[in-house]
Amino acid sequence: MKNYKIAVLKGDGIGPEIVDEAIKVLDAVAGKEGFGVEYNEYLLGGAAVDVFDNPCPEETIKGCMNSDAVLFGAIGGPKWDNLPKEKRPESGLLKLRKSLGLFANIRPAMIFDELVNASSLKPEVIKGVDLTVVRELTGGIYFGEPRYKDDNKAYNTMIYTRDEIERIAHVAFKEAQKRRKKVTSVDKANVLEVSELWREVVEEVAKDYPEVELEHMYVDNAAMQLVRDPKQFDVILTGNIFGDILSDEASMIVGSIGLLPSASIGGKVGLFEPIHGSAPDIAGQGIANPIATILSAAMMLDYLGEEKGAKRIREAIKKVLAEGYRTKDLANFDAKEVVTTSEMGTLIAEHAAN
User: Fold this and answer.
1) Phi, psi (5° rounding) for residue 316?
2) How big is the CA angle at 306 (ends 302 and 312), to the nearest 5 degrees?
3) What CATH number does residue 266 fall under?
4) Does pLDDT of 256 surpass 80?
5) For the chain, how many structural domains are there in total?
6) Model confidence over 310-353: pLDDT tens digits?
7) Does residue 136 sit in the same domain as residue 248?
8) Left (φ > 0), alpha (ψ -120 to 50) or beta: where does 280 sit?
9) Which of 16, 31, 111, 320 could potentially form a cystine with 129 if both were Cys, beta carbons 3.0 to 4.6 Å apart?
10) Tell me: the pLDDT tens digits for 167-206?
11) Distance (Å, rounded) from C-alpha 71 to C-alpha 304?
């Protein structure tokens, strides 16, 4: 029997609640598919600041490096907003991603038929949407040097190297090979030199994947097209800041940010997390939607080679939604019964175990 070591980073806010439900579902699937899971919990974000005065302690980095995968909840909250930048929870996550070499963020956005009315767009526009955003995670303007701020002036630097663009492009094209074989590379090459290089390198990488169609799109047009006709997209490839924005836009197209998972890969160990934040305003109330975290656990199983288990989780979620169970964020959309965070996790786990 295969056994997997999973580093668990529950984080802050609703993080512990939603991660607990993902673990509940993972245990149900493991029992059915015949593999074992060993969980080791570490601190990250505000929770780590409170204990270690450090948002990403070395113990956490080492624990993650010695695992097969990392399951992560969410970090941050008003409690830590006034700390120096290097001690804020978000800095801890950036440090962890960099330490693990996680340069590629994969964010699928698909619509569940049972939730077509949850989107602010018309059902005929979003029914059948199934796209993935592949975002470069460790370069671009968020990390570029020099950076500076005084009372009168501030600047940041957007930098990408050929190697950074090549490696993220390969991830996107390989993802497209498993899907509908189309990559839309998003940039701003009509204005930015860094985007000119991005486009040139992506076109070179595309030659290695002749069966995959490549198109280029400026980021402002891509933002508009995501709302106008999201079904045209298969895999969206883009840089750090553009991917940050477009993936959040995609999340609202499908109806709730509480539905979308993500994977950060590229290094020795993959990290799997919901794309939403820690929502401290609802923490502890039992109303957070755990589906995004449970779907992140499914992505983790795919990554570990347990595709049958991943499929079992996704089918269980569809069944629970089809039966009309909803958490509070989706209460107005064909809900037969509104359930708590824990109840939703239990329902999905029960279906996954059948």
Assistant:
1) -65, -40
2) 85
3) 3.40.718.10
4) no
5) 2
6) 999 999 999 999 999 999 999 988 899 999 999 999 999 999 99
7) yes
8) alpha
9) 111
10) 999 999 999 999 999 999 999 999 999 999 999 999 999 9
11) 12
Whether omega for the bond prior to residue 16 falls within 30 degrees of 0, making it cis, is: no
Question: Is 188 a residue of the active site?
Answer: yes
Is the domain of 88 the same as that of 197? no
Contact 352, 310 (CB under 8 A): no
Tokens of 296: 């992140």
pLDDT at 239: 98
Residue 220 is a catalytic residue: yes
- Residues 136 and 238 reside in one and the same domain: yes
Select which of 20, 27, 244, 334 is catalytic: 244
Record the tokens describing residue 272, joined without a space: 């799997």
* 163 in active site: no
pLDDT in tens, 262-296: 999 999 899 999 989 999 999 999 999 999 999 99
Quick check: is 325 catalytic? no
> What's residue 113's pLDDT?
87
Residue 20 lies in a domain: yes
Are residue 249 and residue 270 in the same domain, yes or no?
A: no
Buried b (16+ CB within 10 A) or exposed e, 53-87: ebbbbeebbebbeebbbbbbbbbbbeebeeeeeee
Q: What is the pTM of this model?
A: 0.92
How far apart, in whole angstroms, are the C-alpha atoms of residue 23 and residue 178? 27
* 127 annotated active-site: no
- Give a yes or no: residue 349 inside a domain: yes
- Indicate whether 207 belongs to any domain: yes
Task: Between 112 and 214, name the one with better pLDDT.
Answer: 214
Are residues 243 and 330 located together in one domain of the fold? no
Per the residue annotation, which of 50, 163, 220, 229 is the catalytic one?
220
Please return the burial class of 131, using the count of CB atoms within 10 Å of its CB with bins 0-12, 13-18 and 19+.
buried
Q: Which of 200, 220, 253 is the last residue of a domain?
A: 253
Is residue 114 pLDDT above 90, yes or no? Answer: no
Q: Are residues 135 and 239 both part of a single domain? A: yes
In which domain, by residue range, is 280 found?
Answer: 1-108+257-354
Domain termination site, one of 234, 253, 272: 253
